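2024-03-11 09:14:02 INFO worker-7 job=invfold-0412 stage=load source=structure_tokens
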């Protein structure tokens, strides 16, 4: 059972006047995946906030200095945890999918969509 966590209690997403700021492309991808999975109904924003807060608190307990440079690592870990808890995806399948994505990203020309093998058959 998780309690609702007020969104304002979470560390702020780095932003500038145009919106979220990302240091690496994978951070923007993790952000977009969370938004899309929320829109699809996999979790509510309160559930998301609770999961992210729990990941950040766990990292701090193990020594994360919370300087902001690990924020999206916590984001991704919370996202993976929710996906594993709420779908039939297994940790092994998730790891396999991440590997396939990395290989597909290396093959994709810059600016072109990244297609996984099953996407290419469609």
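2024-03-11 09:14:09 INFO worker-7 stage=emit residues=122
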């Amino acid at each position: 059972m998780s309690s609702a966590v007020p969104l304002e209690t979470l560390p702020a997403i780095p932003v500038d006047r145009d919106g979220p700021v990302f240091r690496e492309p994978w951070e923007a991808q993790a952000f977009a995946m969370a938004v899309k999975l929320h829109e699809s109904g996999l979790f509510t924003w309160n559930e998301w906030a609770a999961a992210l807060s729990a990941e950040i608190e766990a990292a701090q307990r193990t020594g994360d200095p919370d300087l902001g440079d690990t924020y999206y690592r916590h984001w991704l870990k919370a996202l993976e945890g929710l996906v594993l808890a709420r779908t039939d995806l297994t940790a092994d399948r998730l790891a396999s999918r991440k590997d396939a994505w990395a290989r597909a990203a290396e093959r994709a020309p810059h600016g072109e969509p990244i297609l996984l093998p099953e996407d290419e058959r469609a």
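2024-03-11 09:14:09 INFO worker-7 stage=report msg="The radius of gyration is 16 Å."
2024-03-11 09:14:10 INFO worker-7 job finished
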